[in-house]
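Researcher: Batch entry, complex prediction.
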Amino acid sequence: MTRYLLKRLPSALLVLALASFVVFSILRLIPGDPASSLAGPDASAETVAAIRARLGLDEPLFTQYAHWVGDLVRGDLGPSYAIGGDTASLIGDGLAATAQLTLGALVLVVLIGGALGIAGATARRGWVRGAVRAVTTGALAVPPYVTGVLLVLVFAVALGVLPPGGHASFLDAPDLAVQYLLLPALCLALPSAAVLGRYLKDGIEHALAEDYVRTAKAAGVAPRRLLWRHAVPNALPPVVTLLGMQTGHLLGGAVLVEAIFAWPGLGRLAEQGLTRRDYPVVQDLLLLLVAVFVVVQLLTDLVYAWLDPRIRWE
Amino acid sequence: MTDPSPRPSLPDAPTRRTTLRAAGGGAALLGLGLAGCRSAVSDSKSAGAGGTSDAPRRGGTLDIAINADFTPALLFTQTGQSLQNRLVFNTLTRYDDSLRPQPELATSWTYAKDGRSITLRLRDDVTYHDGRKFTADDVVFAVRNLQNPLRAAQLRATALAVSGFEKRGDHELVLKLKHPVANLFDLFEFMIITDPDSVEQAVTGKKLNGTGPFKLAKWSPGTGLSLTRNADYWQPGRPYLDRVELRVVAQAEALLSSLRTGQSQLSYDVPGKTLASLTSDGTLRTKEYAVGGGAAYLGVNTTVKPLDDPTVRHALAWAVDRERLVKQTLGGYGFASAAPWPKSSPAYTEANRTHYTYDPGKARELLKSAGHSRLDLPLLHVNTPGETANAESVQYDLKQIGVHTTLEPTDPAVSQKKLISQGMPALWVQGHGFAQVQPSTLAVSAYPFNEAKNTSKYRSEEYTAIVRKAWTGTGLSGSASRALYQEISDVLLDAAFVIDLAVRGRVETASTKLHGVTINKFAYLNLDNAYLASGS
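Model: Structure tokens for the complex:
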């Protein structure tokens, strides 16, 4: 396995090196630069030049690239140009907030999607099945920015039971953090919950139509046991696969939801960084995403190799 | 249509009783869980509870909704979000409503007869948040700090006019000037007094050490600033508030919800169009300040043909329906004006404001007299909703006189670069500040109007001469200064390289429980006397 890992490692490092070059180049190709953003709307050429010099933007591009990569290798992400603070702290805090939102949404996806799927598959009354269909269609059709505003209007403005936006740390104030999390997590979760619900409903219906279920029913197995011990477990594998795929969607959707609910996650950070041309923040953030992808790919390859020894010897 | 596939045999679905039990159990669990907790909503709503009248009351937390975060690197630059400057720091003086300087850290001042120096006497009872005494050295540093181009201070030209310092003890200082400066008190209103030892930490957001009424407790990038009361503030018994939270709520709808629900009690970032709906229930009030918000204008690149012809620029100035723009895109907040000055400015006159009104017939005639019946020009604007609405309004009006524009929505960073590098296309719609203080400041500090180098690439010896005269003229009588300001207005209106459209006020939206709030001419929030009352 070690030999296989050593064989795969250079290509992973090459991908990272290429990605760093592409990320660096693309940012320099976007019009506008950090010095102009920092100089403000009334700055003189002297001010812009002084800021460029302080940030090292007057150096040749290759030197800037070498400095950036060198610092990265040493584990120093350096200071943010425009947002303020350290890039590492900014990304760390953003990552924690986005993870919090995504995990919260994932829990709601499982709860809501599970309830919808089971209700849709087992309800004997037509109106219940119709209602489940309507809810899932609605949750899929309405975009998150509309859902978000509606949730705020109902739960924050009309009922006044949940805050309309903001964020609290789970470490500092877990009780407040849950309340701040509920609406954005729900907004993020609804479309994925609808997809999950539909898959689960079809899966359960399919399982319930199998011969072994009919046999078990004829043998006197209690309906509830039939559902929970046989139908649901058999319907779950494709749903779990789907849930994994939906996690990616949730991470992507978090960008929009973060804007609606003033949630200080990675999406907000990326938007701020791009708007202000904060090169270190955007570069490090994009490279981090690439690195995560590369590591996941590497791990997948290792698992395949572990499962199938032939791959190791190819 | 019927379903062709028969439904599979179903196990017994949960009964109604089971379902209700499950739902009830879940609700009870959630209720019990949350009942034992603080409420994020009631915490905000009760922030002002405790008093029963309008009398000042100690304590409470004020939550302020801001649409952009504090940017440490721009601490010494006026931006759209400078509220924290007068909360953590102090300035030397502050203007009253008539632009008369009032004492802050400077208690009194005396100009030399030749206008080439000013003697400042400073408070001797002021300490920084870290306990260090405030002295004249801090003022010397503050001026030198703004002279540094890295600070990107708009009033750098005025700071650079200070050529020397003479300390007379710890609390008296003479500023020596290269030439008389008419807008020195603009500098004193603008310049926050920071701790020299920690200024580099201040511009990275790590430490803000000032003499102001609130200390920095925490800055969370993207979330906002938490400030706590400075118990050793030099104003006895002030501030009343215990805490101030500046929370970033970037999205307009979320910001409105934040105010509606009482999560925030104050904001300066509510779009004018939505203010009426917000204040209709009586829990919120609005107040308009003639500061900071600046003016909306149509910029003209005078090197692009045929815009090098003043007659064509005059045609554009007559073509825009400013009243409609104010009503439709600014929600009625602000006023239509052909000149940049707010009503509080000594340069403001009704004749200047109405120098160009909406007269498409006259605009067409002027265009025809310049030899044009149709023009096709690009019109750049920042891609925010407010600026886009302004640009579309201008585009419609110009089309009526035969000037067809192509909108160029641009992101703020690119727009800013083009603005300060003279890279703008033929036309652009933007906002400008600095007309709310001494009129000469506009022409030396606001880049679009800068007499030496501006976005429009407009140069005129006459303009330069008048601006220099206004900037270096001190001790002028009221009528003499008014005549000088009128000369500036005349040049601006005639040259029309910046065609002003509307003067926007800074609109404060606040809970009716909040009293004693004010902002200075650069939109620094002053909460020295602010308090939250209930029952009012």
